[in-house]
Write a structure and sequence with these properties.
- The protein is of the alpha+beta class.
- It has a four-stranded antiparallel beta sheet with strand order 2-3-1-4.
- The model has no long low-confidence stretch (mean pLDDT about 80).
């Protein structure tokens, strides 16, 4: 009963397990390169919630493509998860007395071809656009960058995987996705990849480990009851380990994923030796209780 109660408690803790998405902590070291990186990060801090949307395609400054990118900007701003969007549409004319600075890319994109052809030249000469928000034209192709700042409160409430998934849906369903190549990047996207891969590795490693262990035990014992007896401790060890991680708030990173296969190997190996000892005692004519108590005392499970 105590074992079942503790396993139930650890199963609840298993639901509280969280993965570690701190890439800087994962790569932390005492090397000169990392110390230099730490110093630069302190001098020039940057937000870890900036997503970069890259838009690539031919004739990027055509009225049709400009309208598609402008609509995509509006769609992103309508999302609760987005704080702001910085792009070529954010650029303004120099400030003049008596009037507000007008956008360099006009709101009315139905103007003549001469106006739009001069737009590319102006963007290439703009110090904040050239090489930063838009690239030069190479064989008619350009690359535009959209800096999407996420809302910190929404990220804390719903989590990065949900937010990035929502942004991916907005981008993939936009009209720009039909004619242009769109891609999300940045630290939040990398963190989501780490979270997803860590969760996937936990499931894959443990499932494959139990399956391989069951096959090996089946080859040795050729009795499903003994295979089950040897696998149950391994399964409980995994549940208890992950449950303790959940209850203590220990986050699992890719390195800690190696703990689970080690737990499986040690548990299955000990269970197999224990069962072999029990079977040898039974073959020698020892009573069932004594046949199992001898290995238990030898392994330290029972007092001598």
């Amino acid at each position: 009963m105590v074992l079942l109660a503790l396993s139930a408690v650890m199963t609840i803790g298993l639901l509280k397990v969280k993965t570690d998405d701190a890439l800087d902590q994962f790569l932390r070291s005492a090397t000169p390169d990392y110390l230099a990186f730490e110093e630069l990060r302190e001098r020039f801090p940057a937000s870890d919630l900036d997503v970069y949307l890259a838009v690539d395609g031919p004739d990027l400054l055509s009225p049709e493509h400009l309208q598609q990118m402008q609509d995509l900007t509006f769609d992103l701003l309508l999302s609760d998860a987005v704080e702001s969007v910085v792009s070529v549409f954010s650029l303004r004319e120099p400030l003049e007395a008596g009037r507000l600075p007008a956008p360099i890319i006009p709101d009315d994109l139905t103007q003549g071809p001469e106006t739009l052809s001069a737009l590319g030249k102006r963007l290439d000469e703009h110090p904040l656009a050239h090489g930063r928000l838009i690239s030069k034209s190479v064989d008619g192709n350009r690359l535009a960058l959209f800096l999407v700042a996420l809302n910190r409160d929404e990220v804390a409430k719903r989590g990065l995987p949900v937010i990035i998934g929502e942004l991916g849906t907005i981008v993939s369903e936009s009209a720009a996705a039909t004619d242009l190549r769109l891609g999300l990047s940045g630290m939040p996207v990398m963190k989501v990849e780490v979270i997803d891969s860590t969760r996937r590795d936990i499931l894959v490693f443990n499932a494959v480990g139990l399956l391989v262990g069951a096959v090996i035990l089946g080859l040795f014992f050729r009795r499903w009851r003994l295979v089950l007896i040897a696998n149950v401790p391994a399964l409980l060890a995994i549940i208890w380990s992950l449950g303790l991680f959940g209850w203590t708030g220990t986050r699992i990173d890719p390195l800690m994923n190696a703990v689970m296969p080690l737990v499986l190997v040690v548990t299955i190996n000990n269970a197999m030796h224990f069962l072999f000892a029990v079977c040898r005692n039974l073959d020698a004519g020892t009573a069932k209780v004594k046949a199992s108590s001898k290995p238990s005392r030898r392994s330290g499970l029972l007092a001598r």
